[in-house]
Amino acid sequence: MTTARIDGRRRRSGSWESSALGGLEWVANPALAGAAFLLLSLGVVTWLPALAATAHVLYRWRSEGEQRSFVGVFEAFGEFWRKLWRHSLVSTAVTAVLLVNLGFLAGQTSPFALGFLAVHLGIGAAMVLYHLGLAAIAGRSPAGELASWWRQALVLGFGGRRGLLLLAATAVVVVVTLPLAVGPFLFGPTVPLLIALKLADRTTPLPLGRDAR
Known about the structure:
Elements: H1 3-40, H2 47-64, H3 69-105, H4 111-140, H5 146-158, H6 162-176, H7 183-203
Helix pairs in contact: 1-2, 1-3, 1-7, 2-3, 2-4, 2-7, 3-4, 4-5, 4-7, 6-7
C-alpha cells in the first residue's frame, strides 16, 4: 500500500470523526442547556431569565465555540434575573390565567366558547413568539436595555414571516421529541431558541466590535 493511499485513508477517517463529533455537539449542547433551563425553571417565576440565560449560552456556543452549556446557563442566570424578574412575574401571571381559561374553554361546545378558545390560542401563540424573541435578543446582548429588548423582540416575532417560521419550528420540535421521555423539556426551548438566534442575526445584527457577553 502506497504512502498516498495511507494518507488518504487517514484524512477520510479524520473527516468522519470530525463530522461525528460535530453532530454530537448539536445534540449534547442543546440538551445540556435545556437541562439547566429545566432546573432553573423549577422556581416557576424564574423561567424567563432562565430562557434568556439559555439563549446567551447557545449564542456563545455558536459564535465562539463555548462548550460549557450546562454550567454557563447557571452563571448567566443572575444577570438576566436582575433585569427580567418583574417581567417574569407578569408573564407568569398572564400565562397562568391563560392556561386556566384554556382548560375551561376546552370543555365547552358552544360557538361562543369555541370563538373565545380560538382567541386564547392566538394569544398563547403570540406569547410564545414574543418570549422566544425576547430571550434571543437578550441572550445576544445581555448588556442591553430592557426597552430595547422589547422592541427588537416584537420585530423578530411579528415582523413578517419569521414569526410563523419560529412558531412552526417550535411545534415540530415538541412533536418530534415526544417519543423521548424528557425530549420536549430539553429540546423544546433550545432548538427554537437556536432558530430565533439565527433569525435575530439577520434582522438585528450586532454592531461591529460589540461584546455580547
